[in-house]
């Protein structure tokens, strides 16, 4: 079969070259974007008098028929056509003849693939944002029910201070909100039309790039054609944004794994999103969060892979850039599935409120409150108060009790300046609710955070 670009060549390429050179097995995913971009291009060519209106109409009708064939599964993908662009154009010529040969006027595969890939990435940006919003909604729904649920806040994976479960979940809402903001920032920054740059230097044809941008939903056109055909920053950005989302998912997944263990038992994962062991019948394994944690590695690899491909490329387009799509496709599919299954695993899990409260009663979570009490009530410098509190903790350890339930008498053995009202300050609930500073874990502060996030969500619709 003669290739559309074969005029300069005296001999056909080897079959092995066809297999090595072709991107069709994976870039056929871009068929919808390719057809959309080609219809816009033909529409503009007719408007500018470069094509007749009849030719543009034939092209649009033929391209829509090809779209139907692909979606019906009757389209024949032939690896000899190399990529989705040549596959569509070859079929178009078969369907409508001479008019199909005119479609490629004033464009190159370089700007064609750039517009197809950019359209795909822009669409996926919006889809991922939508799924992130759904995850946030689930977390917010749970948070509103658990503003009073005590939970041990940790640093270094050691008990630190009492917080509430809502406060903990809102930390992940904050992360996913930033992820949305990054995706939307990338969308705005990259909503620029590449088409019309041709191979690298523009075209002598009297085209109207602004018109094509409007047809395809871009905000503007690119400024420099040499940069445009070789620019894959938009692909790097979605890979980075997905890697960051997956990092946040992985952190949450790690906590779900820990929390579902017998050592913690803070949550019970639904049977729908758990698996068993092939040999140990008692096992209920947290495979969903483990896979979420593991899949973070593959999206990190996709980001590093594309950075490595691009790092030494001279301007403008190089065939190396054919390696830009598979990692993006894989990362998009991975984050989409990961967010959806995380949403369902969290929505269906059982929260063991009593076990969380019980865990707060060990580890001396109100130790900082004793130090604050000594500063505020006894006018003791913080560094000295810190030392006294350390002695109190050691004394509680010796008695085999938690600091939060230590009697006033025992505390006064550590330091006589401690007053009778100290027990109130060592209460776990008091400790949590004392942190009323903006962004703190007090129930009042947590509820304000919920209001802030709810207002943000409402403003998005």
What does the model show?
The structure is a single chain. The chain is mainly α and 461 residues long. It has three domains: 15-105, Orthogonal Bundle (Fumarase C, Chain B, domain 1), CATH 1.10.275.10; 110-150 and 164-352, Up-down Bundle (Fumarase C, Chain A, domain 2); 362-453, Ribonucleotide Reductase Protein R1, domain 1, CATH 1.10.40. Helix content is 63%, strand content 5%. The protein is built from 20 helices and six strands. The protein has helices at residues 15-21, 24-27, 31-47, 53-72, 84-96, 98-101, 109-145, 165-190, 209-216, 225-230, 233-259, 287-310, 326-348, 353-360, 367-378, 382-399, 408-414, 422-426, 428-434, 443-459; strands at residues 150-155, 158-164, 192-193, 220-221, 267-268, 350-351. A two-stranded antiparallel sheet has the order 1-2. α9 (209-216) links the parallel β3 (192-193) and β4 (220-221). α4 (53-72) packs across α5 (84-96) and α7 runs parallel beside α13. The mean pLDDT is 94.
Give the strand content: under 5%
Helix content: 55-70%
Strand order of the largest sheet: 1-2
Question: How would a crystallographer describe the biggest sheet?
Answer: 2 strands, antiparallel
> What is the total tally of β strands?
6
CATH topology of the largest domain: Fumarase C, Chain A, domain 2
Order of helices and strands: HHHHHHHEEHEHEHHEHHEHHHHHHH
Family: Belongs to the lyase 1 family. Argininosuccinate lyase subfamily.
Domain Argininosuccinate lyase C-terminal: 365-433
GO cellular component, one term: cytosol
Organism: Sulfurospirillum diekertiae
